[in-house]
Each structure stands twice: as C-alpha cells, then as structure tokens.
C-alpha cells in the first residue's frame, strides 16, 4: 500500500489527573504511532482540564484509528483534528542561548530585531532570545543561527487553535 | 448523621451496592483490612483461588456465562502482577471484570517497598481503565466508576488499586446514588435511522449475502441474539460465526454454515470469499478471520455493526458502518423492514444457496475414524451427542482441542461457550469453568482441555475440591502441544522442537489426590461409557482421553494465505512454499 502520509494536529481535552499523559503516550508507543510534537498544560483550573496538542502523521486509516483509540480513553473529554478544520493557526515557542564572544555579534542583534524576537537575558558571554512562530519560521531561525554559536535551545512543541468560531468543547 | 466508615468497609459496601454476590481472590498483606471486612459480612461470597491469574479467569467465566461483572480481589506486588495475563485476556475478549488490588501505603509508594509494584502503570495498556486511589474521598467514586466503565460500551477489565492506609482511613459513604462517578462516559449506543435505511437497502439488493457474527452479539445481551435470529429467519441468508460468536444464534440451525477463519469450515470461508455483501455484526476482522487481508472477500460490499468506533476500518475497510448497541441496531432494522413491508425473496438467493450447498457437500470436517485408536474429533462428537440435551457450559484451554471443540460441539444458546479467543491463553479453561460452575451450580460444566494446557493452572484442582465444584475436565491427551507440533510439521520441516509433553502426571491419580474422580479411556469402543459415567458422577471428574497423537486440525488456512487457499486434510499439500511474509505471522 502506498497511501500518502499526512500530518495531523490533534487537540485533546483531558482531565488533569496523574497518569493521563502516560495513557496517551503509552497508547501511541504501544500501537506504533508517531508523535512529532507534544505539548500539554492545564487550561481550566476550576474543572481540572488540560489541553494536549499532538502532531502526528500517518495514512488516513491510521490517523482515523489513532483518533478512535484516543477517544476511547476514559479521561479524554474531547478530541478535534485541527487540520481537518477550514482554517487554523499553529505556533511554537523557542528559547535559544547564543555565545556572543565572537565579532559577528552585531549581525545577531540585527537579525533578532528584524524577526521580532525578544532578548530575555544578556551578559558578557551569552544572550538568551525568545521567539514564537510557526514551526517553519522556528526551523529557519535555528538554521540561520547555526553559523553563530548556539549553546543550547528548547522548543515548546506546537500549540494550535481553529480560526473563526470553531473551538474545542469540553 | 451518616456514620464514618473505613475504606475497607466502603469497598465491601460499594460491592454490595453493585449487586456483587461472588468475588474471586487471594489475600495478602496489602489487602488484609478488606479481607477483615469480608469476614464480618455474609452478603458476598469469596472464592479462594490458588493463583491470582486463575482468579481473573474464574471471574471471566462467571461474567461470560451470566452477563454480570466478574470481581477479583488480590494483594499488592506479586498478587497484582499475577493478574496481568487474566486482565489482558479480558481486554482482548471484551469481558467485564473489576479487579481490586491492594497497594503499599501512600507514603511508601515509589520507595520500592516490600511487595510494591506499579500495577497501575503495568496494567495501563491491558485494562479499559484503571485507578490508583490516593485519597479516601475518591474511593467510592472509583469503585462505582469501575463498574460503570467495565460494563458499558464495549466491555472490558478495570483495575482499582487501593493503598493499605486508604483502607483504614475513615469517611462518610452515602451509597451509590450519592456518589458521583464517570457520568460522561456514555458510548454512543443509538444508531441513526438513515444508516439503518441504507443497511436494509443493501440487504435487499444482495444476491450473495453472508452474515458474519461475532462475540459482540453475545455481549449485547439476549435481546440481540433474539433479533438476529429473527433477521436471519426473515432474510433466509446464510450465517457464519467467529470463535467468540459461537452460540449467538443456534449453531444447529440450517442457515448456520459453520465457524469461519483459520480453522473454519470450507463453506463458511468460501462464502466469505465469494459473497457480494458481508454483514459483520459485533466482530472485528481479526487476523485469524481474514487471513491475508489483501485477498479478503475481494468482491463484497461490507457493512459493519459495532459499539466500538475503533473497530471500524482498522484492518479491513468497510462500505457502511453503523455504531451502536447491537440489540438497538437490530431492533431498528427489524422495525424498518416491518414498517416498509419489505420482503426478501428466497428465489433471489437460491443460486447462492446452491453454491453454498455444493461447498457444504465437501464435508470438510470429515476425518478418517479408527477402530483401534480414539480420534479427538470422534471423542468430541460423542461428547456432543451425549450431552447436547443438557445444554452444557463449555470452556476450553488453547490449542487443537479448542479448535476441534469449536468445530464439533453444538451451541444452541449464547453464554454457554467460554474460550480464550483474542489472547489465546493456555490455562484459561479450568479456572473459567470454576467461575461458570459457581454461577450455575446445578448445570453441567465441561472444560475441554489438552494435556499441556491443563497443567498451566492445575493448582486450581485444590479450589475445585474446597468448594466441591462438579466441573468435568475432558482432556484430549495426545502427548504433544498439538497446535505447536502442527505448525512445526507444516512450517518448520517437521522439527518438533520442545513440543513433546514428556513426564506427564497420571491424571487419574492426580484427580484422586484432589478428591475427584479420574477416568481414563484409550479405545473408541469405550468412549460412550466414559462420557455417560462422567455425567453421572456428582463431583468433579478428570477424563484422560488418550487420543491419536498424530492427528492434526483441518481445515486450515496457512498464515499469509487467503480463504480460498485452504488445506482440507493431511493429504492436501501446500501450493509451493509459504511466503516469507506468511512465515513471520503468528
């Protein structure tokens, strides 16, 4: 079978209870599904609800199966496939620590300013910048900065939301 | 004012409120408070098993023969880990079980304490859901939720892990009505009418239809069986059943064309292969059913009725899927047929039935009988003839004997056939038979076994003795792990690596040592007398039926083959080599 693989962003509303992430992640690893990116945090502290965003990929059959399996988990209230909605946006946050002992440092400042990244910290040796953007924008930022000295970086994983009046219900 | 109760007492009270009459268990340090409460009451009967795996299988047997939830109580650590095989079995075969396990006290969790195991972590993938109760306030809610989840939607096992300190803490318990549980878990049980209309129109048009019926019909309850029987009668269409579905409608019915799948009948598998409409009801297109998926029923439109959305399009794509409780779907279907006064002409399908009858005439379950040695098929045919009128409950272990039992026994009522289908657990049948016998103390319960499987939970003879359970164990003793040997003959150049059963016990003496009756037979002429005597004896019996050690189970669809590439007997040779793809399949 040569069915095409496509990327899907799944937004999942779950009870914020111990083990809920293990259930979801265990289901993916146990059944051999991909997780390309994962982000999770509580979004409703009154109802103890967390929102999980998973980027996965597979054929239509596999992705349908993933959705059906996740929906069967008891602490899962709702799942929407954001990629199936008319329009949506997806953003990611990156923190990057750069070595600024080199001479080319001026170029860095210029670039940071151009793309609208923030400087969160700086001293004589390093700066830490913060940038949010689409995964493509973030990847191109990393590529650009590779010529300088990246000390370390961390990415939040994608978070996503439908445009217009579509939204994930409880 | 409501009185405060200990956690252990709440466990017992909650079980009583869930209408639990029997639990299967084994005590240990981390559940002593619950056992203490059990001691002080007389509403719940505790059956002391001899191994925790057997507790789960017994609960499965109880659940599958009654439709109620089976309940298990075990201690922490090894007590809990011993249930894993049973829980996985219940998960695969959709059996409602609630397993309560003790745990080390909350402040010790994560400390590698004595008899500590992260059982909630271990059983996460093999339960429908599980709970670790860390606060006494959540205890009652967790237990009631466990029962709700176990029996609603597609049934399955739920584990509730209760640390020992939680069992001794006290809180108020207002009963089930005043305990909030997982009310949002409400699987879609009602199908939409327009899918029913589409379904009926497909039924009307088909010239080569086949009903493919699974265990979901039995799980849905006796009304589902009744409606399906009616639908079969109205349409006159042929029906095949899966291993799990046997008895969903009577297998003595003329429209029943045998079990399908790897060891299914020629007529059932060819009907699946050549049909133009397949109606799958409560089955899941398991690999034992489909064989090679790419060659599975290539020309049929497929309809799938099921409660579980994750069963749709999992391995085989279908044209129409209807999600819902099967009894509701079938009821709506019958109503629609009645309202629209739709009739099904027998003429339209007469050519199809002619074809099926030609396949039937092959008599694929035929075997060469012998006068000197007992053929296992013969033993089961005689068992069937001499016990059928008693509607016995049959359990099995796993292997050749299981397939022969499925092929040669009659199942005229649902919930009378308990076998490990999905997981294929050797050692399932004996404890399952105990659970069935506890639920039906006056009925005939027979564990059709092999001499290898029976040894996997033979310690349960002690339980059988203690509770005077008149379980009949019918061992087809061929001195081999027969199914393993059959595959070695077929796929591994007849190199019988470790499949010979050496140093077997004397099953007659073994029976006697547990206060049961042991009977042995090795001549075909003595078969009937043995079976009659077995039925007559009031207590437990082990029958050691010494059968032909060389017999193999046919028909067989070798791994990686399609329904029309069936081997009908020992002289039917494989066409060429089994593909590499087929060799790696189980």
Can you put this structure into words, describing what you see?
The complex is a heterodimer of chains A (170) and B (586). With 170 residues, chain A is of the alpha+beta class. Chain A folds into two domains: 79 residues, ACT domain (Alpha-Beta Plaits), CATH 3.30.70; 71 residues, ACT-like. Chain A, domain 2 (Alpha-Beta Plaits, 2-Layer Sandwich). Helix content of chain A is 27%, strand content 41%. Chain A contains four helices and nine strands. In chain A, strand 2 and strand 3 form a beta hairpin. The longest helix of chain A is centred in the middle third of the chain and has 13 residues. Chain B is of the alpha/beta class and 586 residues long. Helices cover 35% and strands 16% of the residues of chain B. In chain B, helix 16 crosses helix 17. The chains are: A alpha+beta (170), B alpha/beta (586). Chains A and B meet through helix 1 and helix 2 of A and loops of B.
What characteristics describe this protein?
A: 170 residues, Alpha-Beta Plaits, 4-stranded antiparallel β-sheet, 4 helices, elongated, B: 586 residues, alpha/beta, Rossmann fold, 3 domains, 6-stranded parallel β-sheet, globular
Number of helices of chain A: 4
Number of domains of chain B: 3
Derived structural class of chain B: alpha/beta
Shape of chain B: globular
Tell me, what is the CATH class of the largest domain in chain B?
A: Alpha Beta
Q: Provide mean pLDDT of chain B, rounded.
A: 96
Based on the structure given, which CATH architecture of the largest domain in chain B is correct?
3-Layer(aba) Sandwich
Number of strands of chain B: 20
| End-to-end gap of chain B | 61 Å
Question: Structural class, judged by helices and strands of chain A?
Answer: alpha+beta
CATH-derived architecture of the largest domain in chain A: 2-Layer Sandwich
The total of helices of chain B stands at: 23
Task: Provide the low-confidence segments of chain B as ranges.
Answer: none
What is the arithmetic mean of pLDDT of chain A?
Answer: 92
Biggest chain contact = A-B, 17 and 19 residues
Number of domains of chain A: 2
The main pleated sheet of chain B reads as: 6 strands, parallel
Give the biggest sheet of chain A: 5 strands, antiparallel
| Strand percent estimate of chain A | 35-45%
């Amino acid at each position: 079978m040569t069915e095409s693989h496509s990327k899907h962003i799944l937004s999942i509303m779950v009870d914020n209870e111990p083990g809920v992430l293990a259930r979801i992640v265990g289901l993916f690893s146990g059944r051999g599904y991909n997780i390309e990116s994962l982000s999770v945090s509580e979004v409703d502290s009154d109802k103890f609800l967390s929102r999980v965003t998973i980027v996965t990929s597979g054929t239509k059959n596999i992705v349908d199966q993933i959705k059906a399996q996740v929906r069967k988990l008891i602490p899962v209230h709702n799942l929407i496939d954001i990629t199936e909605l008319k329009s949506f946006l997806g953003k990611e946050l990156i923190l990057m620590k750069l070595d600024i002992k080199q001479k080319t440092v001026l170029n860095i400042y210029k670039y940071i300013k151009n793309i609208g990244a923030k400087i969160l910290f700086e001293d004589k040796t390093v700066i830490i910048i913060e940038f949010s953007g689409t995964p493509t924008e973030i990847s191109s930022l990393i590529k650009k900065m590779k010529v300088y000295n990246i000390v370390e970086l961390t990415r939040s994983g994608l978070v996503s939301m439908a445009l217009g009046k579509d939204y994930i219900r409880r | 004012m409501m009185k405060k109760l200990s956690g252990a007492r709440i466990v017992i009270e909650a079980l009583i409120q869930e209408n639990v009459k029997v639990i299967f268990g084994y005590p240990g340090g981390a559940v002593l408070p619950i056992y203490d409460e059990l001691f002080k009451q007389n509403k719940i009967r505790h059956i002391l098993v001899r191994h925790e795996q057997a507790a789960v299988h017994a609960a499965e047997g109880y659940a599958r023969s009654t439709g109620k939830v089976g309940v298990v109580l075990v201690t922490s650590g090894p007590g809990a880990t011993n249930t894993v095989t049973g829980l996985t079995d219940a998960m695969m075969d959709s059996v409602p079980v609630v397993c309560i396990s003790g745990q080390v006290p909350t402040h010790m969790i994560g400390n590698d304490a004595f008899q500590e195991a992260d059982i909630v972590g271990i059983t996460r993938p093999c339960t429908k859901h599980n709970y670790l109760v860390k606060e006494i306030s959540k205890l009652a809610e967790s237990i009631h939720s466990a029962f709700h989840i176990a029996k609603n939607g597609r049934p399955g096992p739920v584990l509730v892990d209760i640390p020992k300190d939680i069992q001794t803490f006290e809180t108020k318990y207002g009963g089930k009505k005043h305990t909030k549980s997982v009310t949002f878990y409400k699987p879609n049980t009602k199908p939409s009418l327009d899918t029913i209309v589409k379904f009926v129109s497909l039924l009307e048009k088909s010239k080569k239809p086949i009903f493919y019926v699974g265990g979901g019909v039995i799980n849905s309850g006796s009304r589902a069986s009744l409606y399906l029987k009616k639908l079969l009668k109205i349409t006159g269409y042929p029906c095949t059943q899966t291993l799990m579905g046997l008895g969903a409608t009577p297998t003595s019915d003329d429209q029943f064309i045998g079990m399908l799948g790897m060891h299914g009948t020629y007529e059932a598998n060819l009907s699946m292969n050549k049909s133009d409409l397949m109606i799958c009801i409560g089955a899941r297109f398991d690999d034992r059913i489909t064989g090679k998926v790419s060659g599975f029923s290539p020309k049929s439109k497929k309809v799938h009725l099921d409660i579980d959305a994750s069963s749709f399009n999992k391995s085989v794509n279908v044209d129409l899927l209807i999600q819902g409780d099967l009894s509701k779907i079938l009821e709506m279907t019958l109503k629609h047929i009645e309202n629209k006064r739709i009739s099904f002409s027998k003429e339209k399908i007469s050519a199809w039935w002619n074809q099926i009858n030609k396949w039937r005439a092959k008599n694929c379950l035929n075997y060469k009988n012998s006068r000197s040695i007992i053929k296992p098929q013969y033993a089961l045919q005689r068992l069937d003839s001499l016990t059928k009128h008693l509607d016995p409950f049959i359990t099995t272990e796993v292997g050749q004997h299981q397939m022969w039992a499925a092929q040669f026994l009659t199942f005229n009522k649902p919930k009378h056939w308990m076998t490990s289908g999905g997981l294929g657990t050797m050692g399932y049948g004996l404890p399952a038979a105990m659970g069935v016998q506890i639920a039906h103390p006056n009925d005939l319960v027979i564990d059709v076994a092999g001499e290898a499987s029976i040894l996997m939970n033979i310690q349960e003879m002690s339980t059988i003795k203690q509770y005077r359970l008149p379980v009949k164990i019918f061992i087809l003793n061929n001195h081999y792990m027969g199914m393993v040997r059959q595959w070695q003959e077929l796929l591994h150049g007849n190199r019988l690596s470790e499949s010979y059963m050496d140093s077997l016990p004397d099953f007659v003496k073994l029976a006697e040592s547990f206060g049961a009756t042991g009977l042995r037979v090795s001549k075909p002429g003595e078969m009937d007398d043995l079976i009659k005597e077995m039925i007559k004896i009031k207590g437990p019996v082990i029958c050691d039926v010494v059968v032909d050690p060389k017999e193999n189970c046919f028909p067989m669809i070798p791994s990686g083959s399609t329904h029309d590439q069936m081997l009908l007997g020992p002289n039917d040779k494989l066409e060429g080599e089994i593909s590499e793809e087929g060799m790696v399949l189980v």
